[in-house]
Amino acid sequence: MNRIRPAELHAISHGLVAGLLKSGFVKAKAEQALLERRVSELINDTFEKAQALEAEAEKLAAAHSREMFGMDQRRVIQGILERLARERDFPL
User: What is the pTM of this model?
Assistant: First the structure.
């Protein structure tokens, strides 16, 4: 999984917050810049958790690689990743 660049993260956060405020869907209780920083933190945290989950799935697949001889490693990792995400109620 590729890491998101800070400029991309800022653009996503800015667009999301600006759109929500403009539409009137939310009313700000803080400055827009603070909201954008918080949204950026949440997005970044989610990416970090997803990367950790994928690393754990790869580790589990490697630990059981002898049992899965001849199977497509990427599909095995994806299956483990989906199971872990479901168990932890983490959206993929």
Answer: 0.77
